[in-house]
Structures are given as structure tokens and as C-alpha cells.
Design a protein that fits this description.
Layout lengths: L4 E8 L3 E7 L5 E8 L6 H21 L3 E9 L2 E3 L4 E4 L6 E3 L1 H9 L3 E5 H11 L8 E7 L3 E7 L2 E2 L31 H4 L1 H14 L20 H9 L3 H25 L3 E5 L7 H14 L7 E4 L6 H16 L1
Parallel strand pairs: 1-4, 4-8, 9-12, 12-13
Antiparallel strand pairs: 1-2, 2-3, 5-6, 6-7, 9-10, 10-11
Helix pairs in contact: 1-2, 3-9, 5-7, 6-7, 7-8
The structure holds zinc ion (ZN).
Length: about 325
């Protein structure tokens, strides 16, 4: 590709789409965001995706750039080989042949990928996992998702569902996960699990800080995970307990991940990873405690923020050009 060539990249989420024109060196030449409005149903969302992609290609041409490929990443279960969005809870996709629809509309070679795998791909190649051949990217937000990236490509699995670290069983009989099973990592250590657990315990008054106890049945105001982390750092007892439980569960999950994948670097992204040293210091120690003969991976925060998925979409678009 020459300097004027760009990939058109879209990261489609439940609430918004992050879109960009990206050069072959990974440089973002233009970016824009659009609402997904998933409530309109999958057909309308697909039409918006195609219109936004078309608009980006037109914008590139108007700016004297040459769009050469299109990359779209979506949440849920994605069959990357066939280019089909199989299933998504928050966008409503069911067997949508998005790659074919998009390549027909734009006339560009198109790659369809999974949002978290694409984010992991970008972190492994352009971000915090740069220079490591084996990277585990773990995004901790409303849920916990992960991507295992080996020498620059993300492992998809036989059914498009590889790397679901959030559904490792860490506490049999524990809180029920969104997937329906009790005790998944996600049900204990996701940002929403931490927020729920803290808010619930605070409401029942199970705390030895008498000043912060609330009467049972009092109105509950949800305390976010970042706030729980801050209160734990400040030494508040209940926050410290909930935070420690989350860190221990995460360390169990990561130790299992390391036993399976033996990576050089684990990159933590998503909202919870912004807790900084309050997360990374105890988590490193807890992970070290759990490893026996496995080598300890580098544990680092993600570097690309919420643009990782969009950059990953661009990488997928550019990669398929090389394979042709
Ligand atoms: Zn689960």
C-alpha cells in the first residue's frame, strides 16, 4: 500500500460505532463516531453500518485518499472464516452475512471480525503487547472477555468463541453469571459484579465501618467499580473485602489462562483496568502465588483505550489484502 491508501474500519458496539480511516502503518487519518441505536432492530443496524462505511469511503476519496479494504468488528459470536455475525445479545444479530453485504455495497475486500479479538490484536501489534509473540488480552467491563493473540493473529476457535476467559469456573456455587452458570469469573470480577456486590453488602449493613453502614432495605444507590477501588485504596473495610475477592478471582482466572496459553504478556483493558496500581499490584502478587512451574507473564494495562477495536478492524482489513 502507498501512503495515500487507507483501510475503512468500523467497531460496532451496542450503543455506538467507532469508525476510522487508518493507514497501513496504523496511523488514524480520520475518525468519527455514530450511535448504533440497537433498539431499531438488526436490519436497521446493518443498514446504518453499510451507510456509515460507504460514507467513510467517500470521505477518504474526497480527501485524496484511496480506500483499499474494509474491516468491520462486532460483538457476540462471529464466524470470521465465513464472514457471518452469528449471534449478539446487545446488537440483535442472528446469522447476518455482514461481510458479503458490505463488500457488495462498497466494492472493497472486506473482513468481518469479533470486537474483543480485534482489540486484542491491536494491543498485541500496536499497543501494550508490542514485541511479544504470545499475548492474552483481557477486557474487564460489564463482562469479562479475552483474546489470545499468537504471532500477530487472534485465535478464533472452531466456533468463533475462543478465549472466553470470563466464563472460567472460579467459584463453584457462586453468584450466577449472565451465561446462566453460577461461579464464572465474570460473575465475581467484572466491573458490574464488583459494583453489585459492594452495593448489595453495603445495603445489608454488613460492614465493620459503623459510619458507612446503611439500614437494611434502604434505597440502594449503585456504587461503581471505580469508586469501590478508590474506597478500597482509602482503606474502607467493605470496599477492601469486595475488591480483594475480585482480585483473587481474577488471579484464579489469569492463572488458568497462563496454564493454557503460556503467554509473555497479559494486557488488561476495559474500565476496571483503569484502577491502576490498586489493581495491578495485588493482582501481580496473587497471580505469582498461584503459578508453580509456569513462567510469570508481564501484566500491563492496555495502551490504546477504546480505539483498540477500531484499529483491530483496520488490521483485519489490511491483513486480508496481504493474503490475497
Ligand atoms: Zn458465565
Amino acid at each position: 500500500m502507498s501512503g495515500s491508501e487507507v483501510a475503512v474500519a468500523l467497531d460496532v458496539g451496542g450503543t455506538g460505532m467507532k469508525c476510522a480511516l487508518v493507514g497501513p502503518d496504523g496511523a488514524v487519518r480520520h475518525s468519527e463516531r455514530h450511535p448504533t441505536d440497537a433498539g431499531r432492530g438488526p436490519a436497521a443496524v446493518v443498514e446504518t453500518i453499510l451507510a456509515v462505511a460507504d460514507g467513510l469511503a467517500a470521505k477518504a476519496r474526497a480527501d485524496g485518499l484511496a480506500p483499499t479494504a474494509l474491516g468491520i468488528v462486532v460483538p457476540g459470536v462471529v464466524d470470521e472464516a465465513r464472514g457471518v455475525a452469528l449471534w449478539s445479545a446487545n446488537v440483535g444479530f442472528r446469522d447476518v452475512p455482514l461481510r458479503e453485504l458490505a463488500s457488495r455495497r462498497l466494492g472493497l475486500p472486506t473482513a468481518l471480525g469479533h470486537d474483543v479479538r480485534a482489540g486484542g490484536l491491536a494491543e498485541a501489534r500496536l499497543g501494550a503487547g508490542r514485541n511479544a509473540g504470545h499475548v492474552l488480552f483481557v477486557a474487564i467491563g460489564t463482562g469479562i472477555a479475552a483474546a489470545h493473540v499468537v504471532t500477530g493473529s487472534a485465535v478464533t476457535g472452531a466456533h468463533g468463541a475462543a478465549g472466553e476467559l470470563g466464563h472460567i469456573l472460579v467459584r463453584p456455587g457462586g453468584p450466577v453469571c449472565g451465561c446462566g452458570r453460577p461461579g464464572c469469573l465474570e460473575a465475581i470480577a467484572s466491573a458490574s459484579a464488583v459494583a453489585h456486590r459492594y452495593t448489595e453488602l453495603a445495603a445489608t449493613g454488613i460492614t465493620s465501618d459503623p459510619g458507612s453502614a446503611t439500614a437494611p432495605g434502604a434505597n440502594r444507590t449503585m456504587v461503581g467499580a471505580a469508586e469501590v477501588a478508590a474506597r478500597a485504596a482509602a482503606g474502607e473495610r467493605l470496599a477492601t473485602q469486595v475488591w480483594r475477592e475480585a482480585v483473587e478471582a481474577l488471579a484464579d482466572g489469569l492463572a488458568t489462562g497462563q496454564a493454557l496459553f503460556d503467554v509473555e504478556t497479559i494486557v488488561l483493558g476495559g474500565g476496571l483496568a483503569q484502577a491502576g496500581a490498586g489493581l495491578f499490584d495485588p493482582l501481580r502478587a496473587a497471580l505469582r502465588d498461584r503459578l508453580t512451574f509456569h513462567r510469570e507473564p508481564r501484566l500491563v494495562p492496555a495502551a490504546l483505550g477504546d480505539e483498540a477495536g477500531c484499529l483491530g478492524a483496520a488490521l483485519l482489513a489490511l491483513d486480508q489484502l496481504e493474503k490475497r
